[in-house]
Amino acid sequence: MRKLYIQAVSALNCDDDWHEFNGKCYFATTVKKSYSDNLNYCRKLNADVASIHSKKETEFLLKLTESYEHYWIGGRRIVPKKHVFGWSDGSEFNYTNWDKSSNDPNNLNERENCIIFVRDSGLWWDFPCNEPHYAFCQRTEMQQVVAKFAIEDGKQQAIVIKQKEKY
């Protein structure tokens, strides 16, 4: 009698209602809130307001929702009255997609300290942080599904499927 033990590890995946892109999970909120309220909401989900680092990431977010609304992203002015921004997740601010046709970032009336993702184009506007909008939440924690089973004399004996903790 021969027994064969096999362990299969599935691909990493995101929770329900979250969408995977390039090793991160994204979620589009469904209630309009201020930037700060959205930041708190995303953090309650063990996430942050999304930071964008490439054109491909911009294109992914454009496809994520069919709404024609604007969304908060995690950029915020970090030097008052200057066009110096940082991401709420602390990642490097190494990509921009400002809407040059509207002269952004322009800090109109010195009140525009957060960044809006313009839904129909993916371009960015600086915008007053207290305005209510949806947001993109982003996290790197993903689940991993592991299946273990034994085969004895060609017959499957047992299956154990479990989800590993998020990491």
TrEMBL record:
Coiled-coil segments: none
Name of protein: C-type MBL-2 protein-like protein
Species annotation: Leptotrombidium deliense
Positions of transmembrane segments: none
InterPro entries per UniProt: C-type_lectin-like, C-type_lectin-like/link_sf, C-type_lectin/snaclec_domain, CTDL_fold
Domain C-type lectin: 21-138
PROSITE patterns tied to this protein: C_TYPE_LECTIN_2
